[in-house]
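Duplicate of #3305? Posting structure anyway:
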């Protein structure tokens, strides 16, 4: 039998899990939307990007645009899945946020402030999706 105290703890635990998942979903939607915009700007070869010489990870600006556009579209899809509190979306959200961090780090010389913003957002997403644990120590579903 469970006592009323345990019921309150379970309710509070699921509220925290749901709140952090919604936080991660919203942040991933924002990060994905920013990546989509950055991808569109890169494909259009907009003049807002800095052109760097002698950069080790130098790709054509259009290539970076497509990379960011694809990752952004997937991020928005995963963010919608997170709003539905799907366990698959939590796992994929952590992996995708990691990929977005790597992509933004590698393309940082082209648009540094935007890259740092998306890296910070994705760091919060990873934190929010990884920190939630149930009472038995496993990931809360």
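Output from current build:
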């Amino acid at each position: 039998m469970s006592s009323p105290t345990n019921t309150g703890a379970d309710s509070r635990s699921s509220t925290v899990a749901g709140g952090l998942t919604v936080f991660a979903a919203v942040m991933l939607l924002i990060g994905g939307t920013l990546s989509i915009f950055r991808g569109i700007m890169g494909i259009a070869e907009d003049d807002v990007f800095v052109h760097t010489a002698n950069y080790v990870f130098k790709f054509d600006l259009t290539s970076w645009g497509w990379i960011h556009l694809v990752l952004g579209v997937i991020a928005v899809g995963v963010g919608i899945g997170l709003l539905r509190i799907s366990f698959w979306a939590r796992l994929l959200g952590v992996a995708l946020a990691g990929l977005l961090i790597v992509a933004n780090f590698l393309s940082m010389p082209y648009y540094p402030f935007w890259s740092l913003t998306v890296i910070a957002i994705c760091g919060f997403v990873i934190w929010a999706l990884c920190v939630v644990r149930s009472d038995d120590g496993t990931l809360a579903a």
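Confirmed duplicate; merging threads. The mean pLDDT is 78. Residues 4-43 form the longest helix (40 residues).
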